[in-house]
């Protein structure tokens, strides 16, 4: 029989690939609970844009816990959508994007889920 695993706030895994202006922490993944097909993390970001990046072949779902972000995407990163508290974003595989915290002084907090056990981050 499998067991339920609790990952406390101070047990999040921090040694993942990072992107400028973003702090990623693994909550559920192979590093914290031997997940076999799921990655879920907590991401926080100070005001300003992240660096451009993508997540390989993984689909990403983002839930905005706190704050307002603008997600840039497209061939020239010239398209965008705005999201705020309570909104979800879907990012298709291999989609280069930038997350911008549009606040002047508040942190953004996000929950991110991917259909992989890897903390896939490819900075471009």
Chart the SSEs and their pairings.
Layout: E1 23-28, H1 30-33, E2 39-45, E3 48-49, E4 53-54, E5 60-66, E6 68-73, E7 79-84, E8 88-91, E9 98-101, E10 108-114, E11 122-123
Antiparallel strand pairs: 1-2, 2-10, 3-9, 4-11, 5-8, 5-10, 6-7, 6-9
How would you characterize this protein structure?
With 124 residues, the protein is mostly beta strands. The chain has a domain at 49-115: Jelly Rolls, CATH 2.60.120. It contains one helix and eleven strands. The chain has one helix at residues 30-33, and strands spanning 23-28, 39-45, 48-49, 53-54, 60-66, 68-73, 79-84, 88-91, 98-101, 108-114, 122-123. The protein has a five-stranded antiparallel beta sheet. A four-stranded antiparallel beta sheet has the order 3-9-6-7, with no helix packed on it. A two-stranded antiparallel sheet has the order 4-11. Strand 6 (68-73) and strand 7 form a beta hairpin. The protein is globular, with a radius of gyration of 14 Å. 23% of the residues are buried.
Summary tags:
124 residues; mainly beta; Jelly Rolls; globular
Q: What sort of overall outline do the alpha carbons produce when their principal axes are compared?
A: globular
Number of helices: 1
Strand/helix succession: EHEEEEEEEEEE
> What percentage of amino acids are in beta strands?
35-45%
Q: How far apart are the first and last residues' alpha carbons, in Å? A: 43 Å
In the CATH hierarchy, the third-tier topology of the domain at 49-115 is known as: Jelly Rolls
Tell me the number of strands. Answer: 11
Structural class: mainly beta
The CATH class of the domain at 49-115, by name, is: Mainly Beta
Overall pLDDT metric: 96
Low-confidence stretches: none
The name of the CATH superfamily of the domain at 49-115 reads: Jelly Rolls
What is the CA-atom radius of gyration, in angstroms? 14 Å
Arrangement of strands in the largest sheet = 1-2-10-5-8
Main sheet makeup:
5 strands, antiparallel
The percent of residues in helical segments reads under 10%
Task: Specify the CATH architecture of the domain at 49-115.
Answer: Sandwich
């Amino acid at each position: 029989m499998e067991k339920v695993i609790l990952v406390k706030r101070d047990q999040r895994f921090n040694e993942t690939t990072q992107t400028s202006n973003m702090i990623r922490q693994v909550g559920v993944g192979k590093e914290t609970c031997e997940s076999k097909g799921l990655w879920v993390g907590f991401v926080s970001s100070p005001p300003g844009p992240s660096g451009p990046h993508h997540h390989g072949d993984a689909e990403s779902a983002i839930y905005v816990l706190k704050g307002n972000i603008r997600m840039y995407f497209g061939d020239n990163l010239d398209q965008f959508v705005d999201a705020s508290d309570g909104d979800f974003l879907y990012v298709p595989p291999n989609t280069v994007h930038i997350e911008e915290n549009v606040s002047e002084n508040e942190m953004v907090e996000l929950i991110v889920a991917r259909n992989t056990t890897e903390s896939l981050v490819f900075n471009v």
